[in-house]
Amino acid sequence: MTTEERHHEVIVLGAGVSGIYQIKKLVDLGIDAIVLEGDEDLGGTWYRNRYPGARFDSESYTYGYSFSKELLDEWHWSERFSPQPENLRYLNHVADKFDLRRHMRFDCRVETMTWNEAERQWRLDLTDGTSYTARFVITSLGPLSAPTLPRYEGMDEFQGLAFHTWAWPKEPVELAGKRVGVIGTGATGIQVIAEIADKVADLTVFQRRPNWSTPLNNSPISAEEMDQIRARYDEIFDNCSKSPGGFEHVPDRRGFWNLTAEERRAFWDELYAQPGFAILAGNFMEIFLDEEANREVSEYIADRIRQRVTDPVVAEKLIPKDHGFGGQRLPLETRYFEAYNRDNVHLVSLQDTPIERFTPTGIQTTAGHHDLDIIVYATGFDAITGAYDRIDIRGVGGQTLRDKWSDGPSTFYGVLTTGFPNLFMVAGPQSVSGSTNFPRAIEGGVDWVTGLLQHARDAGRTRVEAEADAEEEWVREVVKAHERMLFRRSKGWFTGYNSNVAGHQEGKIRYQAYFGGAPKYNAMANQVVADGYRGVALS
Ligand code: NAP
Q1: Å from CA of 211 to ligand 1 middle
Q2: How confident is the model at residue 489 (pLDDT cuts 50, 70, 90)?
Q3: Model's pTM, two decimal places?
Q4: Ligand 1, from 148, 379, 498: best to mutate by most atoms within 8 Å of Cβ?
Q5: For domain 4-146+382-538, is the CATH number 3.50.50.60?
Q6: How far is the CA of 499 from the centre of ligand 1 (A)?
Q7: In a mutational test of the pocket of ligand 1, which residue from 60, 81, 188 has the highest number of ligand atoms less than 8 Å from its CB?
Q8: How far apart are the C-alpha atoms of 19 and 27, rounded to whole Å?
Q9: What are residue 134's DSSP bridge partners?
Q10: Of 7, 277, 283, 496, which has the fewest Cβ atoms less than 10 A away?
Q11: Residues 10-55: pLDDT tens digits?
């Protein structure tokens, strides 16, 4: 390939949910663009997360793309919360339908990205030694694509199979008859544990901090129901666009304190039986803001756990004591708590009996040794900024993005960051993509980025950068929205903390996502456009 062939007006990084839609938009506009994808195929999160139990926790029909009526009309979601294989089939279907694959280059892992001020372009060096150049780079790296492993002594010595859920092997993993250990009880761990509990000989769950979790209440979607959903798509997407989290569920506005405690409990009984995030997104807003309201709903959910787990000692260990309900990203579950009623499932609380080290045959805690054949790391991600940190991105004057963001990201609407011209982020830090139903947020994000790109091209501008003042103003807005919420005190990834990442400090918030809700974010971002891209310097 010649140097010219490796130059494109736009290079998109990542062929996941957002990269697929981004390249579609660029191709439709006739812009010379390609996608570089590090994996050997498309799909991003749904290509990678093949662990048993992986599925949407957004209603499938709110997760699909909304941009093509034809696509909406022809796709049948088989379940309300569709599983990973179907999700990956869907993304492949979209790419094939719109002939997008030919604009994608796979096995292309970008190692460094360097801004060339004289040429006004980016140079991208790949791990295989090749390089590309582009006037604009659009990152569609995904908020949860940089998996992190714990750092326990002896991890390399373990002789059995061991993998992170994100890297669950493509080949079937034989679970029958095996002694399996799962470390981590976030949304991923909770899905895996519930799914494999009755398929393995023995399952040991190593839990550091318990998470609140409520039923997913999944069900199949019949052909008739799918027809009804199709007829309602405009309404569905309209509803999602009005809700803070991008779901059909909307907060209850009756006012927490206007109802009696009995009325509230009766309401929660209804929500607990409803699918998806109804219990969270359809609840009273006060539970996220008011300590007393939060305490009451937390006690309600704790009681539900106590009702479902036979052994009261185990039940107490599964109930979070360090944060209230909704104080971290809520995992949804299917018979998760019942798994602990099985004789072959054992809960190890790492708060009571920490891991001392790994051994060739298992895990040694302060209470004893657990013999294991397989260890599953459901230990999460260096969320939102991790994927950026893994590329050496050098902007104006050689400043690295890693340095600029060492204490946490700083962006203009999660799309631009000063000092890194012509770098557009879809689902970037401090946007709403980390805090909402992802595809609903990224469609808006892609449209916004594409609009800005068109605006620059139409005006014959070759350099686009956020103004420093405007960026500072947006960061203040992000902090303000965050400070209102009770989860500001949590240790989950919403506050940007990950104990496995060097440089992260417990108790120090990294403001990684905008929590003011998608409608407010969209209104403000649209106002920027209406004001002629106020805060964006074009030259
Ligand atoms: P996570 O929520 O960050 O959970 C990681 C788990 O691993 C936590 O329980 C954590 O304990 C534990 N852990 C981390 N490091 C550890 C260590 N060194 N020793 C012991 N335990 C350790 O990660 P995740 O479960 O992968 O979920 C991440 C996000 O992915 C979710 O919040 C969600 O947004 C998304 N997701 C979505 C779905 C879906 O249904 N669509 C499914 C899965 C994930 P601590 O809590 O003590 O840190």
Answers
A1: 9
A2: confident
A3: 0.97
A4: 379
A5: yes
A6: 11
A7: 188
A8: 12
A9: 8, 122
A10: 7
A11: 999 999 999 999 999 999 999 999 999 999 999 999 999 999 999 9
